[in-house]
Amino acid sequence: MKLDHLAIAVADLDAALAFYRDALGLELGGIEEVEREGVRVAFLPLDDGQSRIELVQPTRDDTGIVKWMTKHGPGMHHVCLAVVDIEATLARLAAHGCELIHPQPMTREDGTRYAFIHPRSAFGVLVELYEKPV
Fold first, then answer.
1. How many CB atoms lie within 10 A of CB 26?
2. Taking the complete model, does pTM exceed 0.85, yes or no?
């Protein structure tokens, strides 16, 4: 298991990039619009070449991230761990009584499979699992 990314919820992606890219000096790896989830996402790879910071801005008011930001404000949203076998990981978590937001993995357009673990099962932290295509 590896750290894939740390996701930070932001109200204004351009303002956040002014800090993370311009002031802090991280390179912008790209920006994508994820219409299905109602977000605009900027990826900033870290020097280890494996992990990154993900800035997430809602683009619609009916998204989970808006609900989360209404309650918590902008800031650290979730930790994402890269796994080799997402089904086996989800099965192990379920066997240990963990509450899964996605009991079955979802699939992104690039083939990455993902699922979220509820913060109640992860000591207050929203955890995302990623299985990237081979």
1. 19
2. yes
The Cα–Cα gap between 63 and 78 comes to 15
Q: What is the pLDDT of residue 59?
A: 97
CA neighbours closer than 13 Å in the CB half-sphere of residue 108? 15
Q: Side by side, which strands form the sheet with 106-107? A: 30-34, 39-45, 52-58, 2-9, 75-82, 126-131, 113-117, 106-107
pLDDT exceeds cutoff 90 at 57? yes
Asked if residues 93 and 115 have their Cβ atoms less than 8 Å apart, the reply is: no
Which option is the CATH number for 83-134: 3.90.190.20, 3.10.180.10, 2.60.120.260, 2.60.40.10? 3.10.180.10
Tell me the two tokens of residue 40.
């605009």
Please calculate the CA angle 128-131-134 and round it to the nearest 5 degrees.
160
